[in-house]
Amino acid sequence: MDDENIKDLDYFVDIQPKTQIEFYEAVLEGLSLPQKTISPKFFYDERGSKIFDKICDTPEYYLTRTEIALLNDIQKELYSLVEPGSVVVEYGCGSSIKIKALLSALPEPSHYIAIDISKSHLISTAKEIASNYNNISVAAICADFMEPIDWPERASFESLKRLAFFPGSTIGNLNPSEASQFLKYVRHLVGDEGTFLIGVDMKKDAEIFNRAYNDEEGHTADFNLNLLHRMKKELDADINISKFSHKAFYNEKLGRVEMHLISDAKQDIKLNNLEFSFEKGESIHTECSYKYSVIEFSELAKKSGFSVLKNWSDKRNFFSIYLLKAF
Questions:
Q1: What is the pLDDT of residues 223-259, one digit of tens each?
Q2: What's the Cα-to-Cα distance from 48 to each of 10, 45, 225, 278, rounded to whole Å?
Q3: Other CB atoms closer than 10 Å to residue 242's CB: what's the count?
Q4: Radius of gyration of the chain (CA)
Q5: Which of 68, 16, 61, 26 is nearest to 227 (CA)?
Q6: Strand partners of residue 312
Q7: Are 240 and 261 in contact (CB under 8 A)?
Q8: What is the DSSP string of 231-290?
Q9: HSE-up of 178 (CA within 13 Å, CB side)?
Q10: Residue 101: in which H helix or E strand, if any?
């Protein structure tokens, strides 16, 4: 990373996995499965991150604006519940809007650490926070936050309380077992006295989900299809992208929204002398987004080393924010 790009940051730690190798191996493995599958973490290259920002602005996608409104509504309570001078660690620092709402609500936060796998997006967000909050030292860690991350050596704040922040209901992209493991990773990072503020999408009418993940402007479709563009550009895969289409629906039995790339014809994807055959209608499963009732998520947190200090929901019970305490 060019020093000029990170000069406004307190420090920058690059433990990003070798993304292209990891992507290649994930594609090979995923396309070999009976139900072809690619992890949603590969959505977020620079282009994918920009498309996701557009999704957040669509009228159908209630999650972002509901969470931001809820964050603003609970600012006074957060001020009283979070210890002054805390270190804030954000997992998946997409748009800066939510972290700005949180930092503005807290009593004199001392340090902000942004963690994300998309390096350019990460640096951009961290630098924006550094320029807007002169009284807070700002750092960035480029990493896959679905893997365990140790407290950075350069963050010499051992005596201060740690508050992790994970907005956007990204926890839903993990199945319940994976979500529990991730929560345990966070529990390790924040330590015995740490807290965790997390946004979680709630169960509701299926039609609300189906509209949110199938916006009329087609940004969610572009976001989904971007996986194929990445495969073509980065892995030199031979793909006819025009013969795939986006599909998303709420699976009520499993309590999750599923996203798929549907093959509109009998065709092959070729990658390094390997061919992966598709029947018409066959899909690549690209994302799950699990939805939780308050009871379900509270139980998941408890299994993972956290108790619920407080939880808030909007008036429609669309979305919840939890403040968890390590035990």
A1: 999 999 999 999 999 999 999 999 999 999 999 999 9
A2: 27, 5, 10, 25
A3: 10
A4: 20
A5: 26
A6: 321
A7: no
A8: HHHHH--B--GGGEEEEEEEETTTTEEEEEEEESSSEEEEETTEEEEE-TT-EEEEEEEE
A9: 13
A10: helix 97-105
Q: Does an H or E element contain 195, and which?
A: strand 195-201
Residue 117 tokens, joined: 């796998």
Give me 216's structure tokens. Answer: 């009329």
The model's pLDDT over 34-44, given as tens digits with 9 standing for 90+, comes to 999 999 989 98
Q: Give me the residue spans of the domains in the chain.
A: 39-56+205-290
Please name which of 145, 146, 143 lies closest in space to residue 16, comparing C-alpha atoms.
143
Q: How far is CA 252 from CA 216, 249, 290, 295, 319, in A?
A: 23, 9, 10, 17, 17
pTM: 0.91
Q: Please give the Cα distance from 223 to 43 (Å, whole number).
A: 7
Indicate the SS3 state at residue 150. Answer: coil
